[in-house]
Amino acid sequence: MTRGIRLFGPWALLALLMLGLPTLFDSSFALTVLSLMGVFIIFSCAYNMLLGQGGLLSFGHAVYFGIAGYCTIHLINAVEDEAIWFPLTLLPLIGGLVGLVLGVLIGFVSTRRAGTTFAMISLGFGELFTAMTLVLLTFFNGEDGVQGNRVYEPRPLGISFGPEIEVYYLIAIWTFIATAAMYALTRTPFGRVSNAVRDNPERLEFIGYSTHRVRWLAFALSSFFAGLAGALHAINYEHVGFETVGVQTSGLVLFMTYIGGIGSFLGPIVGAVLISYLNASLSDLTEAWFLYLGLVFVLTVMFAPAGLAGLITMHEPLMRVDRSLLRRLALPYLAAIATTLLIAAGAIGLIEMVYHLTSDLAFDSKTTVFWIELDTEAPWPWIGFAVLLGAGLLAARRTYPQVSRIWDATVAEARARLLG
Amino acid sequence: MDVLVFSIFNGVLYGALLFMLSSGLTLIFSMMGVLNFAHASFFMLGAYFAYSISTFIGFFPALLFAPLIVGAIGAFVERYGLRPVHRFGHVAELLFTFGLAFLIEELVQLIWGRVNVPYRVPEFMREAAFSIQGLDYSIYRVFMLLVSVAIFVALFLLLTRTRVGLVIQAALSHPQTVAALGHNVERIFMLTFGFGCALAGVAGVIGGNVLGTEPAMAIQLGPIIFVVIVIGGLGSLGGALVASLLIGLVDNMANAFNVSFAPFFALFGITADLGGTWEDLARITSASIAPVLPYLMLVLMLIFRPRGLFGTRDT
Which of A242, A412, B54, B312 is most exposed by smallest CB count within 10 Å? Predict the structure, then answer.
């Protein structure tokens, strides 16, 4: 019974959440962001099948996402022209098949090696397809991309998929199915062998597995789900542009997956939800959003390679020993978070003002940072933000080492209690 | 005939520029196992610094100072960014340099704006050095060629004839032994990284004003120098040189002689009359697929000879 709750509880919760969210946030903007989150949850989980579970770093996974999107739009247009008929609800499967076929073909060549070589080949294929979008114009239509209209007859149960809410539910259902399927895959022998290829390929070869075939299968399955996400993306926007195939999209899914955390199944989901939201809400507010995203990514690589999910799950062993141990960490954490906010506030203020100065779109020296109107020609805003940044950095020299000191002490004590 | 001569000249020139980038990249790769994704970003920084310096004190001081600054930034990045990440493995290092490339592009946009900057060839070097049947070849292009050749010769002599080069070559293949002999391998890594970035900076200074100095220049050139070092063979300097010239020549030839592939596709019954994507295929010319050619070569190389032309190991 409890085992059943542990296994199915989170999924029931997820289903409830997906059903209920549109009633809580029913604005058009919120629905767009929620749909986007669904698409990128599938995409980043698919990406993590490679990076997190298989240890394969790809710089070109958007190829399978984007080409599947193009095929989906062409199929929608074919239905529109009454050349063939296919239900819209099952189009993501076709997208997935396109991804699968491409993944089987390209994967055979590229998964013979892991590590750096694989990363380079994936980049090469990514560039190849990006360049092709400007050559094969009938299929890709160059920089304009292709359009489609997802509303077509017949309308089962009166659902036309015209309104955003109906598309949201289509995406939500597919997101649920795809994430459940990908989670189930991690539990199969294939999932375990895939982890083994990542951790110790030589030993696996000795046991008798072909590392190439395991990687190939992982790559093909990951491409299938990437294609599925790409089809949903195309249905959502009714447009696919050449940038969906390119390194920008590949980079975005890498950022989502890695910042969320590649060590656990939940990590990429967290990353996709967080970064989709920030991307949608911040890219209008600030020109420097990608700079901040890049900074967060580099800092994650340097200091928290397990990502956000990893930062949370590293407390689980402590919780199991004694919950009260966590209380000791609360104060140092608060101090560290406060100094981080101080540094961030100072740095963001300075970056925003520099952007305003160098921007061609600025008409005068006035700009708004943190809801306050500032004059970039006056010295005080600069001094103010510099002081914030300096104070934060000074404080961090005390608070950060304190966190690591108390963390080490707490872990040592937990270990001592466990052992005796 | 003159078209052939010109495309050879320009191809060699482009190849020499590619070699300046790929030589540093392949040195860093074979020594540290790090594929520096941000290498082309240092090339871009070289061009931007050269632009800023040349507006104040002229082109030739920029040719000296910009690579020095870029090299210093590279050494700094290695010491405080890459070295701490080293313990997480090669994939983490690759991720770090990918993030760095992204960051440098955003920072360049922050400082110099999102559109290209007017970084131009110095006035007196724009005149023709010689001309063949009415087509001029400017002094600047001759100068570029001379600088590239000089750098290649200097690099070759440095690596094969000096003590420093000896240590670097030894550190390429046997880092532990070199460390055991008392050399500071970490410092050698840092200096090599800085030196490689400075070379990329030189390429930026002399190439930026011809290719155009804009925030997208790194992302356009970066994948091509990856292609170069894979085709040449990872870790082989000679291979990098041959592959650079090969790609430079192929690119220029494809553009100069606009060969149609229609007869080739006609063999498979694909002609322009079929319409749609078939028509696109039948209408492909060598100029229209010139940007794709390096990647096609990469894929073919990986299928038929994964170690590259002169590579000694399958990474």
Answer: A412
